[in-house]
Design brief:
Elements: H1 2-8, H2 37-43, H3 47-54, H4 62-76, H5 102-116, H6 125-136, H7 144-157, H8 164-180, H9 185-191, H10 193-206, H11 213-223, H12 232-236, H13 238-253, H14 260-265, E1 266-272, E2 290-293, E3 299-303, E4 306-314, H15 318-337, H16 350-353, H17 356-371, H18 382-396, H19 399-422, H20 436-447, H21 452-457, H22 462-477, E5 482-484, E6 490-492, H23 497-504
Antiparallel strand pairs: 1-4, 2-3, 3-4, 5-6
Helix pairs in contact: 3-4, 7-8, 10-11, 11-13, 13-17, 20-22, 20-23
């Protein structure tokens, strides 16, 4: 026990090697009278930046205060220029001045100075967004139009350095800029061209009756995933194809228990959407209601702090649905007219499909009627034409020819009068409102009898009588009943012969 205690209290030594003279360190007093040049340059802030930093209001709420602080800080340095050699980078979502260090601020203002001098150099994307935020907030611009010009100039000058997201954001902010600052119709047409094109197509299809067939076809084609590029009828007779498409659409729209507009096109809707929603933007429009009309279907309005966007909401799978309709029209057109190779049917609602073939035949018949040549005569000068023709005719005849013509007319009239009393029954009254000359011509054509002398004696042009008959019988027959042959002689079309005979009997 005692031996153990003695060992515990035994002395222990530490060896310290001798210190060489060259490794001896001595205390040196520090001087605070002068700073190192490295720290001196970064600590000396320009007065404009010092003033800007002092304007930041920490009492504002984070969401609304962030944009307001940016606006007022930006206005204080709107005309500031710098020339600082900054070699770093700056990355931040929704960047503001408050997010930057002193060096980053000076680097940004140096880059902005060059941009304002039209010297476009690539930099950090966050610097670019700060510059765009300045322009949409009217920082450093004299007027809304001047701000617009700077935005478009930057889009052109910096195009080589912008990624797809930045381009998309800038395009959206340009549209918002046009609306918010109410630049007018010229700028609306430029930046809302795609929207206006779609809405114009909707408007034409919703008012199909008053829309030309070619416009109906173009409207559906612009909304469709299927096109008539390879349709044989599109090359052979594009007018007929357009007429067919319009007639199909009219029949579908007239279905009593179907709402084709909502099913294939869409419907009018509205959402709450403020401009520059994905940017740092201080909305200074307080209690200044206004409405910006893009077109008949689309508008922006502001009232009591609420922004409302009204637009035509496309139907779900719109392009595919309209594409199936146009495909089935193409397929049945080929089948009816025996054109090109036949197409395989696509899935399409049977109730809508059965309307296509009748529409094809209707359009073909209507276009055939419309294409028939129409003779237009100014009846106000008819009496003068007859008088001039009689004078000219008489001046060319000799006395013997005049006498012979009179004798021939007397014989022909007497002969035809006898035939009229025996073979032709011309009723005194009829429900078709036919004149005596019109009744005479119809009966003569039905009975295969000569009619020319009757009209010659009365100086009546048979072509005018034919036109009047066709007009009066159109409501009953639904088509032209009398046409002229190669010898310019009228005849009743064979398909309507019995119908006409029944009508006037």
């Amino acid at each position: 026990m005692s031996q153990h205690n003695e060992d515990q209290h035994s002395e222990q030594f530490i060896y310290v090697p001798p210190v060489a003279q060259k490794n001896v360190y001595h205390d040196i007093p520090l001087s605070f009278s002068k700073r190192s040049p490295l720290f001196k340059s970064s600590r000396q802030l320009p007065p404009a930046i010092l003033k800007m930093n002092s304007l930041y209001d920490y009492t504002l709420p984070p969401l609304t205060g962030r944009a307001k602080n940016f606006y007022f800080q930006g206005q204080s340095v709107a005309e500031y220029h710098d020339n600082y050699d900054y070699q770093g980078v700056f990355h931040r979502y929704f960047p503001t001045y408050h997010d930057m260090t002193t060096a980053q601020l000076r680097g940004y203002f140096t880059w902005r100075t060059k941009i304002r001098a039209s010297e476009f150099h690539e930099t950090s994307a966050s610097f670019v967004y700060v510059y765009l935020y300045e322009l949409i907030n009217q920082i450093g611009v004299e007027s809304p139009l001047a701000g617009y010009d700077k935005l478009t100039a930057f889009k052109t000058g910096y195009a080589d350095f912008m990624d797809a997201r930045m381009v998309k954001n800038l395009d959206q902010w340009l549209r918002d800029y046009v609306v918010y600052y109410q630049l007018g119709p010229e700028y609306i047409k430029k930046h809302f061209a795609d929207q206006i094109k779609k809405d114009t197509a909707y408007n034409k299809l919703l008012n199909v009756t008053d829309t030309p067939a070619t416009d109906v076809l173009a409207a559906l084609d612009s909304l469709s995933s299927y096109h008539f590029d390879h349709c044989p009828l599109a090359r052979q007779d594009p007018e007929l194809l357009a007429a067919i498409v319009k007639r199909v659409w009219q029949r579908l729209c007239s279905l009593a228990d179907e709402d084709i507009g909502s099913d294939l096109l869409g419907w009018q809707g509205e959402i709450t959407s403020r401009p520059f929603a994905n940017a740092i933007f201080y909305d200074r429009r307080v209690n200044k209601p206004f409405t910006c009309l893009i077109d008949a279907q689309c508008s922006y309005s502001y009232q009591r702090g609420k922004w409302v966007y009204q637009y035509y909401l496309p139907a779900k799978r719109q392009a595919q649905k309209i594409g199936s309709l146009l495909h089935e029209i193409d397929r049945l057109v080929r089948q009816v007219f025996h054109l090109g190779r036949q197409l395989k049917p696509r899935p399409f609602r049977e109730k809508l499909l059965v309307e296509i073939e009748p529409a094809i035949l209707e359009a073909q018949r209507q276009l055939k009627i419309a294409r028939r040549p129409q003779v237009k005569i100014d009846l106000t000068h008819l009496d003068q034409i007859r008088a001039d023709a009689s004078v000219t005719q008489d001046s060319l005849l000799t006395d013997e020819e005049r006498q012979a013509e009179k004798d021939e007319e007397r014989k022909e009239i007497s002969k035809n009068a006898q035939k009229s009393t025996t073979a032709i029954d011309v009723p005194a009254d009829n429900n078709l409102n036919l004149s005596p000359a019109e009744q005479y011509l119809l009966n003569s054509l039905l009975n295969g009898q000569e009619w020319a002398a009757y009209f010659k004696q009365r100086h009546i042009m048979v072509s005018i009588v034919v036109d009047r008959i066709n007009d009066k019988l159109f409501d009953e027959i639904g088509d032209t009943v009398i046409e002229f042959d190669e010898d310019d002689q009228p005849y009743i079309i064979e398909d309507y012969f019995e119908d006409v005979k029944t009508l006037i009997s």
